[in-house]
Amino acid sequence: MLDSKFLNAMNISLDLALEAREIIRGETGQEIPGVRVDKDTYDHATVTTVHIEDQNAQTIMGKPVGKYITIEAPVIKENNQQAHREVAEILAEQLKNLINLPMELNVLVIGLGNWNATPDALGPKVVDQCLVTRHLYNYAPQELQGGMRPVSALAPGVLGTTGIETAEIVRGVVEKTRPSLIIAIDSLAARSVDRIATTIQVADTGINPGSGIGNKRAGINQETMGVRVIAIGVPTVTHAAIIAQDAIEKYINSTGGQPGDASSAIKNVLEPFGSNLTVTPKEIDILIEDTAQIIAGAINMAMHPGISPEDYGYYLH
């Protein structure tokens, strides 16, 4: 069974708090002290909220103290627009509960990732479909309806294409526009291939761009930005090392052998890639489009409850 020893040996961190809890509970056989879990079930989704409540739990989980909401919805991978709308509504409700701001306050939406790399393009694609209204308050107030909030949005790119740390760009925008909240969207890495494009995590702790695939970037959180940050992420890749480990264990178990530590052998195989190879499905372009539409729809519903989705097209550029 995949365990923390293997993850540490391969230098793999888990983006999903739900997966981190599953592995630690599997090793200890009991709930983690300082961690509380709530679960709700809907027609097309299961919502699990992991509360990390103290510093001890933070150390064990490797996640900051805060709330991590995971929406598991395999229906996202199906061509079912009505089900996608229901998942968006569930996400919108979770966002509304976390936002908790007067309607006149400004919100900044940040689409993290590289628009030139499909598995990493989720953030920019969400921003493309977000209903931005901050400029209308200054230049076209007559176009506004009741129940709309000032929203601005930015896809800042990645260090490799801009030469600038993403956190530096975001911090500069925050200093100029002074939002009361940041919503950051990013692609994640999952432990399980089943969670690719079927799981949405919402966290009130901010985000570290690229952390799940070994890129240690400056964090986008309340400490670095001076404003609350809600992070929305969807797994779009998984680690080749994890797939290899799972395959080895299944083979050994099927032949009656005993599973062992395969980390050294896997490292050798992945050495040409610095032991850091990630894998994504061939249909990732379609999955990114669908998840981006769901997340953008949820953000629009949460930000602008006074207008219907049918009216979004009037405001989208």
Can you offer a commentary on this structure?
By secondary structure, the protein is an alpha/beta fold. It has one domain (4-315): Rossmann fold (3-Layer(aba) Sandwich). The protein contains 13 helices and 9 strands. The chain has helices spanning 4-9, 17-28, 55-61, 81-99, 122-128, 134-139, 159-162, 166-177, 222-225, 240-254, 263-270, 284-303, 312-315, and strands at residues 35-41, 46-52, 66-72, 107-111, 151-154, 181-190, 199-203, 228-239, 278-279. Strands 1, 2, 3, 4, 5, 6, 7, 8 and 9 form a 9-stranded mixed β-sheet that branches. A hairpin with a 4-residue loop joins strand 1 and strand 2 (46-52). Helix 4 crosses helix 12 (284-303), helix 5 packs across helix 12 and helix 10 crosses helix 11 (263-270). The radius of gyration is 20 Å and the shape is globular. Initiates the rapid degradation of small, acid-soluble proteins during spore germination. It catalyses: Endopeptidase action with P4 Glu or Asp, P1 preferably Glu > Asp, P1' hydrophobic and P2' Ala. One of its GO terms (molecular function) is metalloendopeptidase activity.
SSE pattern: HHEEHEHEHHEHHEEHEHHEHH
Overall, the morphology is globular
Low-confidence stretches: none
> Helix coverage percent of residues?
25-40%
Biggest β-sheet, characterized?
A: 9 strands, mixed
CA-based gyration radius: 20 Å
GO molecular function: metalloendopeptidase activity
Family: Belongs to the peptidase A25 family.
Subunit structure: Homotetramer.
Keywords: Hydrolase, Protease, Zymogen
